[in-house]
Structures are given as C-alpha cells and as structure tokens.
Amino acid sequence: MNVAWKILSRHVVEGDPAxxxxxxxHIDQTLTQDATGTMAYLxxxxxxxxxxxxxxxxxxxxHNTVQIGYxxxxxxxxxxxxxxxxxxxxxxxxxxxxxxxxLERYGKPGTTLLGSDSxxxxxxxxxxxxIGAGGIDIAVAMAGGPFHIPTPKVxxxxxxxxxxxxxxxxxxxxxxxxxxxxxxxxxxxxxxxxPGVKTLDVPSRATIANMGAELGVTTSVFPSDxxxxxxxxxxxxxxxxxxxxxxxxxxxxxxxxxxxxxxxxMMAAPHSPGNVVTVRSRKGLKVNQIMIGSCTNSSYxxxxxxxxxxxGRHVADDVEVGxxxxxxxxxxxxxxxxxxxxxESAGCRILENACGFCIGAHMSPRTGAVxxxxxxxxxxxxxxxxxxxxxxxxxxxxxxxxxTGKVELxxxxxxxxxxxxxxxxVDDAMFLYRSTKGRGVRGAKIVRGPNIATVPKGRxxxxxxxxxxxxxxxxxxxxxxxxxxxxxxxxxxxxxxYAKYVFExxxxxFHDRCLANVEKxxxxxxxxxxxxxxxxSREHAALCPMYLGVKAVVAKSIERIxxxxxxxxxxxxxxxxxxxxxxxxxxGDTLEFRGIRAAVEGDGRLVVKTAKGDVALxxxxxxxxxxxxxxxxxxxxx
Length: 638
Prior knowledge:
The chain is built from 20 helices and 27 strands. It has 638 residues and is α/β, with parallel strands linked by helices. Helix 2 packs across helix 3 (71-86), helix 2 (34-46) packs across helix 5 and helix 16 runs parallel beside helix 17. The longest helix is centred in the N-terminal third of the chain and has 16 residues, at 71-86. The model has no long low-confidence stretch (mean pLDDT 96). A 7-stranded mixed beta sheet has the order 25-21-22-23-24-27-26. A 6-stranded mixed beta sheet has the order 7-6-3-4-5-20. A 5-stranded parallel beta sheet has the order 17-16-15-18-19, with helices on one face. It folds into 3 domains: 3-262, Aconitase, domain 3 (2-Layer Sandwich); 266-412, Aconitase, domain 3; 465-637, Aconitase, domain 4 (Alpha-Beta Barrel), CATH 3.20.19. Strand 13 and strand 14 (276-278) form a beta hairpin.
C-alpha cells in the first residue's frame, strides 16, 4: 500500500474502494477560518447536535482581522461563543494563520482533517489526509457524519537528490504545476515519495502540500518519517507521532519523477498559479511591491531565510516590502534570534500574523504595479487591484528581488540553509477552551450581532425548470470571480447582503438581473467554460447563487470543491456532452430544462432546448448526491 491508502483504508465508512466511485470517510479533525466559519457554525447549530463529535475541531480567526466597521468584530464574538458552547477550540485573532497553526499544534499523522479552506491540504506535510471543503461539509463532519470523496487515484511524485542553495520547496511545487496545470487533476491524490523526501523539512513539505490545492487534486500527502518525528518532538508533541511509510512494493496509478538537484527558481506569472515560467526568464523586470508570508511560506524557516538575505542590507528605495508571519510562535523565534530587528532595519513593514494581503484584505498594490508574492494564488484582481501584475515566487526569490527592485535569481547570492529547530517555544494561551474541548459548556449563550443572518434553505428540485442564462463566462472562472473576497468578506454571515456581490468582478448587475427573473417566475442558470469554480473552497460561491434562484450550472468542466458545494446547495452541476455546444447559448437566452428531475434521478443525461437548437448535457451523481440535489441541498436533505 501507499501512504494515502494506508490512511484512507482506516477511515472508509461507506463504499468499497475496489468498486464504488464514491467513498464516505470518517473525519478525525476539522478546522474553519472566520471567512467561512460563521456559515459553517450556523449550519452546525441548525442540526441540533449538542456538541462536536470529532477528536478536535478548531475555529481560527485569520482572514478578516482588519476591523473596519462592526461586522468582523461582531462575527468574531459569534465564533467565540459558538466554540465555547459546542466544544470547539477557538484561536483568537492575532494568534496566526490556520494552516500554519494547525501544523504546529494540532495536525497529527495518520488522521483525517477536513477544513473549510481550500489550503487545508497543508496538513499533508506531516502525513495527514487533509482536505478542503465547503462549510456545510465541515458542519456534517463535526456532527459525526462522513465526508464523501470520489474514490481517488494516487500519483507518486518521486523526489530524487536534494535542492541546491537558493532553491526551495516553492520551486518544487511550481515545477509540478508546470507539468500538470490547474485543471484535469480532479479525483487524484499526489503522494510525494522517493529518497529526496528525507531532504525536505516539514515546513518545506507543507508548502508543497499547500499548493497542491492549485492543481485541483483531492489532497497531497507526504510520509510520516524521522523528519516528521523530529518536528513533532520539537513542538512538544512527540506522542502524536506515528510512522507511515509506503510499502516497498507500493502501487500507484501514475508516477512522475522530479530531480531536486535540477529544479531551478520558478515563478507563476499573471494571472494563474499554472502559468509557470523560470525566474531567469523574467530577470531584470522592475518590481514595485513584494509581499512575503501567507499560509504557503510563513514558517520560521521561510522568514528566517529572508532575514539572512537582508542582513546588513536595505530593500530598494522604490519597493514596498511587507512580511506576514504565520504564527506568534514564528514571531517569537524571530524576535529572539534577531531576525525581526534585521527585517525592520532593512525597511520591511511587519504585518499582522494573518491572511490579509493574500485575499486582498489589505496591502493592495498601486495601479499597474508588479507585485512579487509568496502566497499561492495570483488570480486577476485577487490582490485588490485588478490592474496589478502578481507573480508567485519563493521567499528566496522575493528577498533577492527586494534588494534591487528587480526580479533577481536567488541562486546568484544564496544564503545558508536554516536548520530545523530542535525545540520550538510553545505558547498556547491564545487557543481558548482547550479544557472543554469536545464537551462544550451547556447553556452557554450565543452572541449574535446584526450581521448574523439565518441560513437559507433550498427547495426541492421541480420536475421541469425554465431558466434564463443569467451570465455566460469563460474558462478558469474562480470562486474569487463568483464571490469576491477583500472588502466584501465581512458580509459572509449575511447571505442577502453578500448575494448583492455575486459575480461583481465580471458583471455587477448579475444580482439585480437574477432577482428580476425570479419575480417573473423564472429560474436562473450559469453557463461557463473549462475549469469553472477553481480556487477557494468558499461555499458562498454556491450558497449565494442558490439564494438568487440559480438552479443549474452548465460548464465544460467544474472543479471538485465547487462541484461539491453546488450539490450541497441543490444546484445541478451539468457539463456539455459536446463542449462546442457552449457556443449555442448566449447570456439572456431562455433554457428549457424539461425533465430535469427525472434526469437527476436517472442517468444524468438531459437535452435542453435553446434558441439555437438542442444542447445535450450530462451530470454524474452518486445516489447520495442525487438525494441531496433532489431535496434542494444538504440541509434540506437531513
């Protein structure tokens, strides 16, 4: 067996991996962040379960930490009160970024972790099957229910040799992205194996697993080995270690080899993590802003490396540099070893331990700027500035470029490798309710500010649906296009308000047009190209369209997490039998989904009437998914 199946086989509670296309797996741990957690906990509350049934569930506050207006602060109070009542550990605002914190303090080899954030697979860096999902799936898992995944295939990414100085894990995952791209990987798990694995520390492994989300895979996983054991022992968690190695005759569905010694500095050019080029090809490009940190590259190893590049030097005069560490533990270590003083003296802005700049919540670049960032996504406008040209790079490339104000090769003046600490300073004071974990406080009051609204429920699917194509979009539409983050995230717990901004980056009139169609007794449909719904796990990209009367999404292909979210909110995820038929549908066309309920109940095939002729559609749903869609969504089906 390989590592992935050694873990999964102990957690399968529904389905047979040998013959069934879908499996239900037991979830040991869950995590949420504040941008998705409010809705997840409202949904959990509506289930009437008195306490969480997982081994541990943690509510992190790391996205909306800039509190302009009352909404974010009120929602944080709601999250804290929910945690106290239901037995959830609460990570206070300022404690750090969920994925870095969970890796440090709670992630456990051999377990399953489900998180309402698409970068939850970071946990794969310590041998955990960690999967991103929509908030309602997390609510079900906290209530003791299984999580369902397509029966996965496992691809071995065989690592050989070791990285050269100036080259790091970010360059490895960008190399893999250059090979496989951001689409076409649904249903796969990428397992990193081979002799080169032992040369990578846990933060490096976590970076690679984190950005597996950009590939669109179910998750990525590393073995739990001597490197993992040393990391957990250094965190004071030696008892959590379990060795999980692939058998010598482990079988895989596919294999790709990476010679670490031949990996060169890489970058993702605008506007996709899959648009991978070498740093050398952009050498000398003028840079205006550099942001270092985020859940991908905010460990002690990463920020200490940057400090070594900056020691005794100053960033270029016309470059703005921001540093966001992943946790208080990282800041504490940097303060003690003098790195924080180096960063300050070099002219860096020290930012809060939060997601801020990655999601466009602050530090947006100026008009037309070139911004180098160590985070994981560079979708157009995600930074908060639509005209910005955002490149994804390693901390080494970011640091080398900050010193000259131009893209530079970090291998030309590399610094010494940062050794893995033998002991991390542990301070869990900002994790609340650890003593009542899993039990909660009976009778605890839930705090509800005016921004906390009720959870809307869908209606059962009608036999026939007459819908208007409310919007037609192209390829690689992300959840940032559908449901903008940044300044809009504060409405995440208020669906009627948040729904006003659906597709705002593409067409700000979408909301009004949908409501007008509903008033006429018509449903709405969305038509799209390839890889629709890539990016974040935010379920609001399905929940808000459902609220606006969207009954079907018709696309050339749909990404895994978003497809699951559509089903969870009663929206039928159709794909074209003939992708060329997408040209037969224009925005504003009326679409006749006659027999849509029977199609969902049956083989999933449906011929839709359009102004330019019939269009054949298909949807492949498990029996469970059929029940959810027919009921009008997961909440309605329970």
